[in-house]
Recover the amino acids of this structure.
């Protein structure tokens, strides 16, 4: 594996996507004013849902949709399996945040089934030639862009989480910072190399933090450490620095494009959740979402000096 070449390719895709967003004429997706936090706004065909927020957090659910309109052809390349109940989990996290803070995160939800659209892939693989799927793909990413701009203009800093599900029988939550398993197998000293920092999804945080990169990724101040303390098995974390199997989700297209964009002061990660004991019942999912929100509260307070309970 040539990690450096792979990362250069992903960065090139991210830059090309940003140019496309700025250069392409598109219809205006949102009104210029009077956006109401918690209210839904939709793209073409109501395939993409944007829920306006009033706190510096963006949550996206690219693979939890159910709709299979006949006028969009099925995708036949790459995965077409739904990340079950991740749409519901994203909405539940928002509800828990609201109950705790009275505020709403920004949400962008793909309501199309993955067999019709996968917005967490490059456009060619995401839409596979379908013109309606391409419109939905563009709108999904433009809604995220609009959310991040709104946050940056208001708070000057923000956080992004792309919500997914894995199919492993292991009860393990995976956090993807755009570092693959080979990189995570390195020592803390090696992983602190500026090359890995600059190609990660929290590079903006590292540049303004008193903590080392390795500590932020898997040390005692990492998101994984905080979530582990509530009884969840998390990778990476102090308990597990690196994957024990080849299948590990380091973060995909969405994380590359939106977690640490050049023009906005954002950081973030991709999260992969297991089924049994987390998404399988309403009770288990509610427990996870509650724990996730309390960890997010503490994490943003520690690393951003943002108290989401008093925004």
């Amino acid at each position: 594996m040539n990690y450096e070449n792979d990362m250069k390719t992903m960065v090139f895709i991210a830059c090309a996507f940003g140019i496309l967003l700025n250069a392409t004429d598109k219809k205006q997706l949102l009104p210029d004013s009077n956006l109401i936090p918690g209210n839904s706004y939709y793209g073409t065909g109501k395939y993409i849902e944007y829920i306006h927020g009033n706190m510096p957090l963006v949550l996206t659910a690219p693979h939890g949709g159910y709709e299979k309109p006949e006028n969009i052809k099925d995708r036949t390349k790459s995965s077409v399996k739904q990340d079950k109940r991740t749409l519901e989990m994203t909405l539940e996290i928002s509800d828990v945040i609201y109950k705790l803070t009275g505020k709403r995160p920004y949400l962008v939800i793909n309501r199309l089934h993955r067999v019709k659209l996968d917005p967490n892939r490059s456009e060619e693989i995401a839409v596979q030639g379908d013109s309606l799927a391409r419109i939905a793909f563009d709108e999904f990413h433009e809604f995220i862009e609009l959310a991040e701009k709104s946050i940056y203009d208001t708070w000057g800093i923000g956080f992004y989480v792309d919500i997914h599900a894995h199919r492993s029988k292991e009860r393990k939550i995976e956090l993807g910072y755009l570092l693959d398993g080979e990189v995570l197998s390195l020592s803390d000293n090696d992983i602190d190399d500026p090359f890995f920092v600059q190609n990660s999804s929290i590079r903006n945080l590292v540049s303004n933090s008193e903590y080392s990169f390795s500590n932020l990724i898997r040390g005692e101040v990492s998101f994984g450490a905080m979530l582990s303390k509530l009884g969840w098995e998390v990778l990476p974390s102090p308990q597990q620095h690196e994957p024990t199997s080849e299948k590990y989700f380091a973060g995909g297209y969405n994380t590359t494009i939106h977690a640490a964009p050049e023009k906005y002061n954002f950081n973030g990660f991709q999260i992969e959740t297991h089924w049994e004991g987390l998404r399988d019942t309403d009770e288990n999912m509610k427990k996870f979402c509650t724990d996730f929100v309390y960890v997010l509260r503490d994490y943003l307070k520690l690393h951003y000096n943002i108290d989401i309970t008093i925004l």
In short: The two ends are 45 Å apart (CA to CA). The chain has one domain: 3-304.
